[in-house]
Amino acid sequence: MQEDSIILVDKPSAMTSFGVVARVRRQLREHFGKKVKVGHTGTLDPFATGLMIIVTGKKCRDAMQYSKLDKVYEATVRLGQTSTTGDPEGELTDISSREPSRAEVEAAIRQFEGAITQRPPVFSAIKINGQRAYKLARQGVDVEVPERQVTIYSIELLDYNYPNIHLRAHVGSGTYIRTLAEDIGKALETGAYCSELRRTKVGEWSVADASSIVLAG
């Protein structure tokens, strides 16, 4: 292991991205016998799993270039309910018990391929007037996150067994899968949230090459 390196980590569920960085930092300090600078190149929500690119030492200077790479996610979109956070950690509200057909689901997800306008979740790391949106939301502040254009290169329907839609999405930087799930729910008029999320690729790097061993201890 080199002090200036890229480490591919398969993040487990229920751990924050900052928790992953802290764990790697501690292990590198034990390995090298000194403090090593450690950073990430893009967060994953605590409920999500999958690939995180961790940079150490001088490689931290290149963190931004990795964060701008395309990504591939596999997600489960659960129909019939909405969540205040867009994921299982929020407060759930029943919306509809209607069961869309597979043809309806396929037509709905096709609407979101290409360059689209998306409003990121309130519970996100986006800065509003210099503060993280999620921090303001937790304080009870009424947060208005501006819309922005993102690119979804492809969406593949892997399985549909109501109320769960399992899909794979190849997206550009800045795309929120939680928002995509909510938008699919709006298109189907059923409500929806992202119940499971796994990042499988970042640029040319795959979670198949990542390790969870570095998280041990």
> Overall 3D geometry?
elongated
Task: State the CATH class of the largest domain.
Answer: Alpha Beta
Report the total helices: 5
The CATH superfamily of the largest domain appears as: Pseudouridine synthase
Major sheet summary line: 9 strands, mixed
- The value of Rg in angstroms is 18 Å
User: Can you name the CATH architecture of the largest domain?
Assistant: 2-Layer Sandwich
Any idea of the CATH topology of the largest domain? Pseudouridine synthase
| Total count of strands | 13
- Distance from first to last alpha carbon: 18 Å
Strand content: 35-45%
The helix/strand order is EHEEHEEEHEEEHEEHEE
The overall pLDDT average reads 89
List low-pLDDT spans: none
Q: Can you give the helix content as a percent range?
A: 10-25%
Describe the model.
With 217 residues, the protein is of the alpha+beta class. It has two domains: 73 residues, no CATH class; 132 residues, 2-Layer Sandwich (Pseudouridine synthase), CATH 3.30.2350.10. The strands form three sheets. Strands 1, 2, 3, 4, 7, 10, 11, 12 and 13 form a nine-stranded mixed β-sheet that branches. Strands 5-6 form a two-stranded antiparallel ribbon. The chain has a two-stranded antiparallel ribbon with strand order 8-9. The protein is elongated.
